[in-house]
Amino acid sequence: IDSLMYGELEDGSVIANAATMPQSSRNDTFEENNFDGDVNVKIDKEDEADVETARAVAMKLVQCICFIGIAMAINFSVYFSNVEGRYHYHKSQKKDNYVSKSPAYAPSINSPDPGDQDKDQCTFDVTDFGAVGDGSTDDTEAFMSAWKEACAVESGVLLAPADYTFTITSTVFSGPCKPGLMFQVDGVLMPPDGPDCWPKSDSTKQWIVFYRIDGMTLTGSGTIEGNGGQWWELPCKPHRGPHGSTLPGPCESPTLVRFFMSSKLVINGIRIQNSPQMHIKFDGCNEVLIEKLSIFSPALSPNTDGIHIENTKSVGIYNSVISNGDDCVSIGTGCSDVDIENVTCGPGHGISIGSLGVQNSHACVSNIAVKNVVIKNSDNGVRIKTWQGGMGSVSDISFENIQMENVKNCIILDQYYCLTKGCPNQTSAIYATNISYKNIKGTYNVQTPPIHFACSDTVPCTNITLSEVELLPEEGELVEDPYCWNAYGIQETLTIPPIDCLQDGEPETLRESVNYEC
């Protein structure tokens, strides 16, 4: 865990229904005796009346016996019918793929169904563990105690209730835990206010880490508040604006929430804001669902990526709103099968794949689909960025139904990404291929061309497809000089602005390179 904190860990039986049972098993067979044939006495005429009376009494007796037998049979049938009803009731309550253990004793007929028990028995309110929630008291110990209890039971809930403001220091919530764990924030949860209040012994790389968790939901009607303002003002941070400047110096700032080496995660309904750096990060994870997430920080807050994923597979990001000072969603190396849909982004830096290949590293990203997204007042729209000297590939990328509103660099693929002006030229590069842009419409800021393909001299971009691209200036005249360098692909429809710089076919130099293999 210490090294983690410093970022070094990279049926079959059936009960018979009485209605379907044989007659012999439901009620006794009653045979009516032929009294006339069994009587061998002579009957005088004077006794005929008495005989008739006796016969009538006998018939009444037979009828009574029949009635009692039928009643018993009906009772018998109803009893077994009720047993079947109870059997089916309990069978329908069993969870899928769950086999319950035999009880230590036979429950009584009137025992309550387990599903009717009080669900609060699995909820662990941090205030019950000593959390004060006044915005200044350190509640870390209470959260850790509640976590320990919630982690140890199935479907446990750690609850940070509404109407409280909880402060905790840099913390690792580690597993493994029982299935169905929930971390529910209905109040406000925040770190110490700024670097001066940050405990010297705590990591400044991240604030909250969920480590080795299999099956967890982060949710709630509350807010995770980052208190990032003082971190943004550090002299070493990139400052934009009329008086912006960047000075050298230590500039490490904490990611607000990090999931590390975890799987089957759900992030739903929570609000995360004002992070010192990235708002939420997934690293080494698998099967992540993010829905109805709200992320907010000022447009000029530096390095405040909304959602960052790396070395993570099978991710869905849906129905969310992100407004920040950096990428709304950033996708790093080792990611595949990522689906982003119905997201509103901006202001910020748009949706980015990369940067990839920094310091000559090997990077692979594939199977990314971005659909039905609105990007507004952003420095970039949909972007792929790689460093010179990298190896690997970014492939099978789809951007579809994207609405742009006053966006610089609406479509950008840049294989010369560099944070300074002094990056040396290098021959190797990340191979970008099978990239589709379909139904990209809206307005752009005329400060830069809306379409920019800057591909490597030695490893060109290939199989770029443009269809139904219509981008008009937010104000001013149409910019008709989209940039293309060593980019190969096709236009399936006419584009606005017109693009005539894509090359046909596949370059010969590509066949000689093997560094892009993944």
Brief synopsis:
This protein is mainly beta and 518 residues long.
Please provide a written account of the structure.
The structure is a single chain. The chain is mainly β and 518 residues long. It folds into three domains: 11-87; 123-195 and 203-230 and 253-317, 3 Solenoid (Pectate Lyase C-like); 327-518, 3 Solenoid (Pectate Lyase C-like), CATH 2.160.20.10. Helices cover 14% and strands 36% of the residues. It has six helices and 30 strands. It has helices at residues 2-5, 23-26, 35-38, 48-92, 140-151, 229-232, and strands at residues 123-125, 134-138, 157-160, 165-167, 171-174, 181-185, 188-190, 206-211, 214-219, 223-225, 255-260, 263-268, 271-273, 280-283, 286-291, 294-296, 307-310, 313-323, 329-331, 335-345, 351-356, 362-376, 382-386, 391-407, 411-414, 431-444, 451-454, 461-473, 483-485, 487-491. The strands form two sheets. The protein has a 19-stranded parallel β-sheet that branches. An eleven-stranded parallel β-sheet has the order 5-8-11-14-17-19-21-23-25-27-29. The longest helix is centred in the first third of the chain and has 45 residues, at 48-92. The protein is elongated and about 65 Å long. Residues 1-49 and 66-119 have low confidence and may be disordered.
In terms of topology, how is this protein built?
Layout lengths: L1 H4 L17 H4 L8 H4 L9 H45 L30 E3 L8 E5 L1 H12 L5 E4 L4 E3 L3 E4 L6 E5 L2 E3 L15 E6 L2 E6 L3 E3 L3 H4 L22 E6 L2 E6 L2 E3 L6 E4 L2 E6 L2 E3 L10 E4 L2 E11 L5 E3 L3 E11 L5 E6 L5 E15 L5 E5 L4 E17 L3 E4 L16 E14 L6 E4 L6 E13 L9 E3 L1 E5 L27
Parallel strand pairs: 1-3, 2-4, 3-6, 4-7, 5-8, 6-9, 7-10, 8-11, 9-12, 10-13, 11-14, 12-15, 13-16, 14-17, 15-18, 16-18, 17-19, 18-20, 19-21, 20-22, 21-23, 22-24, 23-25, 24-26, 25-27, 26-28, 27-29, 28-30
